[in-house]
Amino acid sequence: MKIFQRIFAVVVGALAVLCASPVDAQFVPGQLLSAQQLNQAFSSVTSNMLPIGGGTLTGPVSGPSASFSTLSATGGATIGSLSVTGSPISISSGGTGSKTQAGALSSILGASSIPLSNGGTNATTAAGAIANMLAPTTLPILGCDTTGSTDATSCLQTKINTLSVGGRVKVTGKLLISGNLTVPPGVSLEGDCVLPGTVGSNTSTPYGSLACGVLMVSSSATINLSAGASLKSAIVYRAGMTFPAADSSAFAGTAVTVAGDDAAVDHVIIMGFNKAVYVNGYQRPLLNYIYGDNNNGIELTSVYDIARITNCHFWPFSTVAAGGSTSSLQRSGTAYYLHDSVDAPMLVNNFSYGYNVGFRFQNISTVNAVNNMADNTGSYSGSTGWRFDGNLNGFTGVGNSVWSQAVGVLVNLNGSQIVDLSKMSFNTNTTHISVAGGNVKAYEAEFFNSTTLLSVSNASSIVDFDHNTFVNNTNYVTASVATTNVRIGHDNINLSAAAGTSLANSNVKSPTIASADPLPLPPFGDTFIVSGAAGFGNLAGGWAGRKVTLIFTGALTVFSSIGSTNSMFLKGAQNFVTGQNSTLTLVHNGTQWIEVSAQGQTPSLLGQTIVANLPSCSAASLGLMYAVSDATSPAYNSTLTGGGSVAIPAFCNGSSWVAH
To answer: Domain locations in the chain?
Structure first.
């Protein structure tokens, strides 16, 4: 009986195992089993069991839990959750060396940063690491003194030098820069001072308390911008400077030096230096939203490709709150100085206040200036708003203005140069325009409130002045030397001068031309005085639409003729014999001159001369007549001989003078 019970138990166990595998044979209760069937069932059970001493499992294992003293895997392992109760995985083995989340994060970030050049984040905080991973070319200045107490030049230079392929360096706090700082190519040094200018008011200038990216630069140092480098959203002032400053006497040094092409200074305020920005020999600088208080503002030289200066504002930011005399608001230098080979600069929306010279252009070419203004305190003796020297080779200006200067615009160009001041606005200058050399054109400009509107001290300077508006000017066009090169047009509008007011003093004169055939007209002007007694039938220098008036000092004959572009067709095809102060007005129709009007005509009066002084007789002067007083034995239609005492008409027959 016991044997049977044992056999039955084995059979039941075998059945349980066999039922667990769908490929095994299935038995039913009461079924008789052979020895072969039982052996197969036992074999199947033992082949899917591990012995207590260990072995190799060839199939998967599943279960609610398992406990191992040690565990290793030669292939991959997928674990839904893992709790480590023993020693953590060491950093040397690729772990964090920690059993907690906070500890793991701390280990990941580390106690010291791994430089970008070594593949790290260059950060020691979670925020810094995340920021640098999101923007790997943005580099904070951790480790540098941002209180301004100690020199940060070397530290900052080391930081920015790691950005060998370009990027951003974020400047926070205040940094003392005692030595030259060089921003590498393609690197931008950026603060968080988003808008330039005062953060207070004209009576409060709290620059010293700001820490939004402040660079306190020694007067013996400068910030060098390499090619493609930039300085943005920062405050730069001279180290040791306090606010408000009493005056500008301590201003020294150069704040920013452009040392490569395509460099930029953008949204930066610069104070306390002799010069704010200097560019020498580098192309396409971009100078935008620079606010400054320095003895000199922006200086450019040898910039052969276009420089852009936009939205800049030079004003006494550092001294305005000090009070005291007006002189504390004045600066001894030039706000914008472009000289010696600056090609096609563009100046848009710039301003200066209180400078000895606002805008100065010397030996450059093709200036483009739109909406720029030079203002002053109104009491700065010798100040000039705009100054043009040497060569200019083109000035295109729209919407520019000048206020409250001793001289609004000073022109001292070379003789072949001209500046066009059309559409410019002048207000409350002692002298609006002073011409010491070169030439000036002003059309559709506005001139308000001056002692002298235009002063000319160079007799060779041509001034063309028309279609302008005048209001409250004491004197208009004055010349300290006699000049015949000033043309005041007929279409100026004078809104305040009393009737009878002259627009020019007695030194402004009409040009005088010695009579000759043809009479040579200057290319500029419309009224000319003709001296001498030589008659003429041709007037050289005409073009379609040109209109001139000739005023004669004495008697001569103007011959009516047709044919060449220099010929003159007079009314009735009659010659015009002039007297003193006779006038003749002609207009050119593109083919020849046509008489418009003549005054003081005296047909019976011939020009008087002697035979030796008769003008050349040719086909062009056929019909010309004079009265000679020294003919010798004249005979009708015979060639005249002088040296006698007979008075007789002389007639030009197309080849020689004969008695008539």
So the answer is: 137-329, 382-508, 512-599, 607-659
The helix (run of H) or strand (run of E) holding residue 156 is helix 153-161
Q: In angstroms, rounded to a whole number, what is the distance separating the alpha carbons of residues 285 and 282?
A: 7
Q: pTM of the full predicted structure?
A: 0.72
Q: Which amino acid is at 77?
A: A
Residue 13 predicted with pLDDT over 60 = no
Q: CB burial class (10 A; 0-12, 13-18, 19+) of residue 499?
A: exposed
Query: What's the CATH number for 512-599?
Result: 2.60.120
Peptide linkage before 518 cis (omega within 30 of 0): yes
558 vs 585: CA distance, rounded Å: 12
Distance linking the first and last C-alpha atoms of the chain: 184
d(Cα 464, Cα 483) in Å, to the nearest integer? 13
Which residues, including other chains, have CB under 8 Å from residue 278's CB and lie 6 or more apart?
254, 256, 257, 258, 299
Annotation: CATH topology of 137-329: Pectate Lyase C-like (2.160.20)
Give CA–CA dist 243/209, Å, rounded. 9
Beta bridge partners of 167: 187
Q: Measured between alpha carbons, how far is residue 322 from residues 205, 271, 317, 328 in Å?
A: 9, 15, 10, 8
Beta strands 583-588; 593-599: pairing state: antiparallel
Check: CB of residue 612 under 8 Å from CB of residue 650: no
Q: How far apart are the C-alpha atoms of 324 and 307, rounded to whole Å?
A: 38
Note the pLDDT tens digit of each residue in 548-575. 999 999 999 999 887 788 999 998 778 8
Give the separation between CA 405 and CA 292, rounded to whole angstroms.
20
- Give the pLDDT score at 131: 52
Cβ neighbors of 181 (< 8 A, separation 6 or more) are 153, 156, 157, 217, 221, 222, 223, 224
Question: Which phi and psi angles does 274 have, rounded to 5°?
Answer: -70, -35
